[in-house]
Specification:
Layout lengths: L13 E7 L4 H10 L5 E6 L6 H7 L3 E4 L8 H9 L6 E6 L2 E3 L3 H11 L3 E10 L6 H10 L4 E3 L6 E4 H6 L11 H11 L3 E12 L6 H22 L8 H24 L9 H13 L1 H9 L1 H16 L11
Parallel strand pairs: 1-2, 1-4, 2-3, 6-9
Antiparallel strand pairs: 4-8, 5-9, 6-8, 7-9
Helix pairs in contact: 8-9, 8-12, 9-12, 10-11
């Protein structure tokens, strides 16, 4: 697919919705990066105790304080911001991200050239990629193929009318809300695109194994809930991802244990893990291949956690890694 067209000379009305909690200096950098790119910034604060709301207001943003007596989700925060948007386009940004110069104009130029494009995203990068292996894994995760896409992440430019036509984000989702939204938008004839342009710098601040484990567990929860919502549709939304988590994260270890109790050779089934790492390594590198396979353990934990909560009819709480 060709690179994104040159930015428009006459800006199309666009406002930004930034969500965050206790982002501190990262929020300041985020808001600064949006100056001169959008007509207005709407900041949705979810119970910060570090003065984030006051900072955003001092920097000219319209501030919305979420009622934290209600269960929090990022989807709910984005919907609260969306309700205040009066422009034709909205740029969603997480408060730990800084928007690349000229990104908004570049994305708007693409949207104008592609009238069916309802979601446009670009390259999200990790600001401190070399700080840890976990940050490097995040950076690789953001590097999705250029062209038509099935989903976006937390940062994206979207058409407001299309968003409102499908009811915005699903407030109840604690993870995976963007792919679920993109699925519903696609069903209404809209298209999602990743263009060849720098979009945001993200700060995962992920330096510990426990953080990576929680983030992977959250992904498993998202897979399971997404499959439960839309897995029966023609898209088979996240059915394969859920199945892989269960097979590699639970099926193989349990089968190896049971077979091993019958005969020690049964434990050889665990060799499927290193074999899978070696199979994936030529395509994604040894480091990423190792964590992709290992990640099936916390992903499976997230899948089981979702279904256990559903059976008990208990709403899942946030799975936060920082």
């Amino acid at each position: 697919m060709p690179a994104a067209p040159a930015p428009l000379q006459t800006p199309v009305p666009v406002e930004a919705v930034v969500i965050g909690r206790n982002e501190g200096a990262r929020l300041r950098a985020c808001l600064l990066s949006l100056q001169d790119q959008v007509a207005r910034v709407i900041y949705v604060d979810s119970g910060s105790s570090d003065g984030s709301a006051a900072l955003a207001e001092a920097m000219g943003a319209t501030v919305i304080a979420l009622d934290m007596a209600q269960p929090f989700t990022a989807a709910r925060a984005r919907n609260a911001g969306l309700a205040q948007v009066g422009a034709a386009f909205v740029q969603f940004v997480d408060g730990d991200c800084a928007v690349a110069p000229n990104w908004v104009a570049t994305a708007l130029a693409f949207a104008t050239a592609q009238p069916d494009a309802v979601v446009i995203c670009g390259r999200r990068r990790e600001r401190f990629m070399q700080a840890s292996v976990y940050n490097r894994l995040c950076d690789a995760e953001w590097d999705t193929p250029i062209g038509p896409a099935r989903a976006c992440g937390g940062d994206a430019l979207m058409r407001v009318a299309a968003l409102r036509a499908v009811g915005g984000y699903n407030d109840s989702l604690i993870a995976g809300e963007e792919p679920e939204l993109c699925l519903r938008l696609s069903r209404q004839g809209g298209s999602v695109h990743r263009i060849e342009a720098e979009m945001t710098l993200h700060d995962a601040a992920m330096t510990r194994f426990s953080q990576w484990w929680k983030r992977s567990k959250r992904a498993g929860h998202a897979f399971a809930e997404g499959a439960a919502l839309h897995g029966a549709g023609p898209e088979r939304h996240w059915v394969a991802e859920t199945r892989r988590a269960l097979v590699w994260g639970i099926g193989i270890p349990v089968a190896a244990l049971l077979l091993g109790l019958l005969h020690p050779i049964g434990f050889a089934l665990l060799l499927a893990w290193p074999a899978q790492v070696m199979r994936l390594a030529p395509r994604m590198g040894m480091e990423r291949a190792f964590f992709t396979v290992l990640g099936k353990l916390p992903e499976a934990q997230g899948v089981i956690g979702y279904w256990w909560g559903r059976l008990r009819r208990k709403r899942a709480g946030l799975i936060e890694y920082k």
